[in-house]
Design brief:
By secondary structure, this protein is mainly α. Helices cover about 55% and strands about 5% of the residues. It has two domains: about 150 residues, no CATH class; about 60 residues, no CATH class.
């Protein structure tokens, strides 16, 4: 099941606020793009069903842009989510969001814009020969996003991250979390512990590091 971009946007806002960080409309759109690409890389699935469009200022989910258009003036922080329910998101998407914010959560909107508009990026590919200042609502194809993130990874500075090998215990903890999530409809609510949270995040980083090594 593919979820709504509004659900993912609400989670992004909640996670930033929980970390004591702000998030504006420009950041929100770039984070949505990064989450979509990262989820395709980590889990081979889209995080949300709505298309990303190659606007002049970078990838944009139009329905989310419309919802948050008057949520705050200019670059002012968004105070709270508008619509969307992140409580129904599976742990894979939650962990993808947290991984993206761990790498990019302190980046400014303009820095994120420059990053996602790099030469060869899906945004540039979708726009073709259009100049950077020209308006566009061309859809960015999911296969193009997936191929780009498969090539570049998620970490903006992979050379600065030491690869590590997950232990059997850590992998078992991550497996327990997945089994608990799959059985949540018939079992009592599962409470996420710090150990399981850390194991799940490390498992994602291990998969990313392994794929990066395979590319090199």
């Amino acid at each position: 099941m593919t979820h709504s971009a509004h659900d993912v946007a609400a989670l992004l806002i909640q996670e930033q606020h929980a970390a004591g960080l702000s998030i504006d409309k420009m950041q929100l759109q770039k984070y949505l793009y990064l989450v979509q690409g990262a989820n395709l890389e980590f889990w081979a699935e889209s995080a949300f069903r709505e298309p990303l469009l190659a606007y002049r200022n970078g990838p944009v989910v139009k329905v989310v842009e419309q919802t948050y258009r008057d949520a705050a003036p200019g670059r002012e922080p968004i105070s709270a989510p508008r619509g969307g329910d992140p409580s129904g998101l599976p742990f894979e998407i939650v962990e993808t969001v947290r991984t993206v914010l761990r790498h990019f959560g302190k980046w400014t909107g303009p820095d994120l814009e420059s990053y996602v508009k790099r030469p060869g990026s899906p945004w540039r590919t979708a726009r073709g020969a259009l100049p950077s200042w020209a308006p566009s609502k061309q859809e960015i194809p999911i296969p193009t996003i997936a191929a780009w993130f498969r090539k570049t990874g998620v970490d903006p500075a992979p050379s600065k991250v030491e690869p590590w090998e997950a232990t059997d215990e850590e992998r078992e903890l991550a497996d327990q979390r997945r089994r608990s999530h799959d059985a949540q409809s018939v079992l009592a609510p599962f409470e996420m512990t710090p150990a399981l949270q850390q194991a799940a995040e490390r498992a994602i980083e291990a998969a990313r590091a392994a794929k990066s090594q395979n590319r090199s």
